[in-house]
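Quick review question:
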């Protein structure tokens, strides 16, 4: 069986990432890049590295169009197509693992993807990505947050290979301002697409357009195809957060409680509710929400799972909530848990303050 691998990408002004990216993919049989108008020397550097490269500029850019044009660069004898961006890179050994698992009936491959890293180097958002696919069986769909769409009528297997690890270390200075209009276009083109409705509502929230966010997220929840409870929970959470930011605390609490009912097995809604109570100085309710959050021991491997819920900050807030109601032993116990996860001077100073307050009380 032909198991030739082609890595392909689209790129614009990615000079600072090219060498790191190329080192992780250069053992593939082919490497192809469609440059969409670089002015920093990226296009020339791709050619210097011997990469199959073409430049094409777009009057109206959309990701699916560019990725579908990049598919045209892939040689016909490549069986396995691997789409990764230039600010991403594989850890060693991925090619051997992929070739060993691929079969004649494989259509897609899911692999472990670290979308971002925390300042201390630990992993942030981690989920299973799926941009490895069979050649000539898929095209890209949607102007942004694009997905693969099968174009033949065959039935393929989807493999999951968590041993393949892809990392993403993005350029934080690069603008993502085009995402909002492209998401609006995406939902206009496919109004029944629940995924895009959720993403658009979230994007409105990021842009502080809270009324539009609430309206769009409620629309997402109304769609008959919106069945994934963790994503529905996220929409309810975001509605609650928008209401909180509009200082409608009653509605905020209502929707955060609805989020917990929708999916009681993930930490995020409990965390947001605990934070709402904490900010309102309702420390008892905040403590109860945090305690319920900590009962959830298993972190889901999906993009909904927020790293903050598994770090030091929840214990930090919990310690302060206990401190504010005079439960100094529990405050010390909670801040100790925070320090285990983040050996921060502020946390250690808080602990000393808690101990001093406890001694004064006694």
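Suggested answer, residue by residue:
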């Amino acid at each position: 069986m032909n198991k030739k691998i082609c890595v392909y990408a689209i790129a614009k002004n990615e000079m600072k990432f090219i060498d790191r990216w190329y080192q992780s993919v250069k053992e593939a049989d082919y490497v192809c890049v469609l440059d969409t108008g670089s002015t920093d020397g990226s296009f020339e550097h791709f050619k210097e590295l011997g990469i199959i490269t073409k430049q094409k500029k777009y009057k109206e850019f959309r990701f699916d169009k560019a990725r579908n044009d990049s598919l045209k660069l892939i040689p016909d004898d490549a069986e396995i197509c691997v789409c990764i961006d230039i600010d991403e890179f594989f850890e060693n050994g991925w090619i051997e693992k992929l070739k060993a698992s691929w079969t004649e009936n494989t259509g897609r491959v899911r692999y472990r993807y670290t979308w971002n890293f925390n300042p201390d180097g630990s992993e942030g958002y981690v989920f299973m990505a799926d941009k490895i696919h069979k050649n000539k069986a898929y095209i890209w769909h949607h102007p942004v947050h694009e997905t693969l769409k099968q174009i033949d009528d065959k039935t393929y297997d989807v493999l999951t290979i968590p041993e393949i690890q892809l990392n993403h270390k993005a350029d934080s200075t690069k603008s993502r301002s085009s995402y909002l209009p492209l998401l609006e276009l995406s939902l206009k083109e496919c109004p029944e697409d629940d995924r895009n409705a959720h993403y658009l509502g979230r994007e409105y929230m990021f842009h502080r357009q809270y009324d539009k966010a609430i309206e769009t997220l409620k629309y997402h929840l109304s769609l008959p195809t919106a069945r994934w409870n963790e994503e529905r929970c996220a929409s309810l959470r975001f509605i609650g957060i928008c209401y909180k930011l509009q200082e409608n605390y009653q509605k905020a609490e209502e929707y955060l409680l609805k989020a917990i009912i929708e999916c009681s097995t993930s930490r995020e809604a409990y965390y947001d509710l605990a934070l709402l109570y904490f900010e309102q100085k309702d420390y008892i309710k905040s403590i109860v929400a945090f305690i319920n959050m900590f009962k959830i021991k298993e972190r889901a491997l999906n993009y909904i799972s927020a790293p903050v819920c598994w770090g030091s900050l929840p214990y930090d807030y919990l310690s302060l909530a206990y401190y504010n109601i005079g439960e100094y032993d529990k405050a010390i116990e909670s801040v100790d848990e925070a320090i285990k996860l983040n050996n921060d001077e502020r946390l250690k100073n808080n602990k000393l303050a808690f101990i001093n307050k406890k001694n004064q009380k006694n």
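Why it works: The domain at 5-168 is CATH 3.90.550.10 (Spore Coat Polysaccharide Biosynthesis Protein SpsA; Chain A). The chain has 14 helices and ten strands.
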